[in-house]
Amino acid sequence: MTVPVRPSARCRALVLELSRYLDGDLTPARRRTVERHIKACACCGAMAARLRKTMAVCRAEGKRRPPRAVMSRAAERIRVLIAREGRRSPVRSV
């Protein structure tokens, strides 16, 4: 039976910074430190690779336009909500 190993304090700190690292938001010195750790630690290297892939998929998905039918239904729903809001009486102050 394999006993789970608790991540080191260094690994836990790195996990909190991975997103900033991948976005290029770290100082050059901190970036080098994170890169060295990722290269030396298989677990953190794999986690960085998975996060990199997830970010790429999310960015690519954000560039796609929804189908025309979805856009039409959304536009109609917005028109209905605006019309409904316009029919409401204004709030009166006391």
Question: How would you describe this protein?
Answer:
- The chain has 94 residues and is mainly α.
- It has a single domain (9-87), classed as Arc Repressor Mutant, subunit A (Orthogonal Bundle).
- Helix content is 73%, strand content 0%.
- Helix 1 packs parallel to helix 3 (42-62) and helix 2 (28-40) crosses helix 3.
- The radius of gyration is 24 Å and the shape is elongated.
- The N and C termini lie far apart (72 Å).
Total domain modules: 1
- Report the uncertain regions: none
Spatial shape? elongated
What sequence of helices (H) and strands (E) makes up the elements? HHHH
Per DSSP E runs of 2 or more residues, the count of β-strands stands at 0
Give me the Rg, rounded. 24 Å
DSSP summary: helix tally:
4
Mean pLDDT: 82
Helix content: over 70%
Please give a quick description of this structure:
With 94 residues, the chain is mainly alpha-helical. Helix content is 73%, strand content 0%.
Please give a handful of descriptors for the protein shown.
about 90 residues; mainly alpha; Arc Repressor Mutant, subunit A; about 75% helix
